[in-house]
Amino acid sequence: MAKISSLCIIDSTCDRPWEVAVRPFPVTNRIYYVGGKWVGAYLVDTGDGLILLDTTTAETSYQLVDAIYRLGYKPEDIKHILLSHAHIDHDGAAKMMRELTGVPIWLSAEDDAFRRTEGSQYVGLTLNFKAYDYEVDYHYNDAEPICLGDVEIRTRLTPGHTPGTTTFFITHPDEQGNPVVAAMHGGVGVLTMSDEILDKAGLPRSQRRRFIDDCDDMMDLKVDVCLASHPAHGALFETLEKVQKGEASFRNPKAWKEFLVSRSKFARDMEDGSK
Predict the structure, then answer these.
(1) Beta-bridge partners for 32
(2) pLDDT, tens digit, 9 for 90 and up, residues 3-32
(3) Could you tell me the sign of the dihedral formed by the alpha carbons of 231, 161, 139, 217, in that order?
(4) CATH assignment of 9-273, among 3.60.15.10, 2.30.33.40, 3.40.50.1220, 1.10.1760.20
(5) What predicted TM-score, i.e. pTM, was given to this entire model?
């Protein structure tokens, strides 16, 4: 897959969404990538219905629906929509998917409040995506996993990218019935962790330190598969090419730690530069 600059891919997602379309593909035997070239989304087959992780943008919502059908499912198979955080590239199609499926939307209480403030508009980039308000049905409780079929999803509040960014830990059986743990950090982009953006958004600068501390704390957790909320953050497509050639597997117990080390380094460098 040809590489494209971040700004160009954002413009394409907004104005020429067909340019960022990606055919869906399996990451595990139960988890499928249904996002685009810029922003990710995942479909989890629980054996008793689907769970959708993030919705991408309103402009690319048709691609999300198309991906669901291409995988042999239907939108009405979805039982829950889980949002990682309240940025328009991840929740932009939440209203559409809610209207299409009628299922509950989940979001952290922190981001449910934050998304209604002026501060939520400061993301360090100019984003011209269409915004549609939506209702949140449930807030995450990190002490209570979300269970459906034979899949368990545990959540963890991991602020930094936003005050309510949520990380998901998904446990499901593999083809032999052995447990597989996949994890998706809800937001590792550091643009919103700069002093300038945090100050404009009315957020404490300590939020950046919290992000670093959480990354440190989660590094040694047992995770078999690392899911990137933005493909570029986790070299998702590069790994896919190797998987298709038989040179690699998405199931890599080292990838999660390497991912967190890499992403937290950007925040550490930013923190050092602000001292």
Answers:
(1) 26, 43
(2) 444 556 776 777 889 999 999 999 999 999
(3) positive
(4) 3.60.15.10
(5) 0.94
